[in-house]
Amino acid sequence: MLDQQTIEIVKATAPVLKEHGVTITKHFYQRMFEQNPEVRHFFNHTNQKRGRQPEALANAVYAAALHIDRLEAIFPAIQPALHKHKSLNIRPEHYPIVGENLLGAIQDVLGEAATPDIIDAWAKAYGVIADVFISLEKQMYDDAPWAGFKPFVIEEIIVDTPEVKRFRLVAKDGGVGTAIPGQYISVQARIAGEDILHHRQYSVIDTTENGYWIAPKAEGLVSNWLHEQTVGTEIPVSAPAGEFILEASDRPLTLIAGGIGITPLFNMAKTALEQGRSVTLLHAVRSMDLRPLGDELDELVEEGLHLITHVDDVSGCMSAMQLEALGVEGHDVYTCGPNAMMETVVRVMPQARYEFFGPSATLASGV
User: Fold this and answer.
1) What is the pTM of this model?
2) End-to-end alpha carbon distance in the chain
């Protein structure tokens, strides 16, 4: 528990954190990678360059400051981070490294404004926040079918489109856990010429008896590397994670996907149909030749899926008017795709659950 003075100081400095948050977090990452290069492999450096990771962290720090006296209020918002930490095997010993560099970044950016009292208050607050993360993540690790990364082998590769391949990954020890529809696994890549390991998350499109199917698009360092691999390649994989999952329900289900955003929704559609639910899937693509999982979706149509394929060679998205015409009152709605598309979906359908491919963020609409 934090004392009242610490709580008041942290809350009072929250506006400063909001104003300078991205500057602080950019400096934090630069500082940490220089001071503690051993943690570099936990981070997506493409997102670092694009500024997405610092922005996501800045939003998280600001939210924690606002709710420091009732951190349970931010539990729903931190679930994606907890699952990502689990998929990367973040452990308690990593939190002091983050804390030391975050406090150092605050002091470096704010200068004399970061008085000893402020730094001391934030140190205490970070300790409490870290303990919350560690406690929640421990439960997730305890419930996982295995800890960290274990070896899988590529047993089969199918060319899906010019941009997408499907990979069947099989555990060398034969033991896997079922991925809840919507969850992902993390792949660990050792890439020639790179001085660190790289990790990326890929949605599980199906669980087999001893492995998983994934369908990465050849986009980015790790996905392009994966597309170059052959059958027999051994790849370390972490246990399924992710909180963007199909919830139990008997309501009609509407799924709205943009391009490769179909991957977490495909397993949802397949499972919901097996459960006897009514399922509508709207898939927006730039062309039919680039439609991921096209044959598999057509097979689901034969099993009762109401499939609407929207082709737009410019944006690959759909308009608010087209979405409104779906009529989803009383439906469960899930969406995944480009942020601009999800903006439109959530504006038209506020009940929609959505997933970012990358760091957790906030849609411009404020949801």
Assistant:
1) 0.91
2) 30
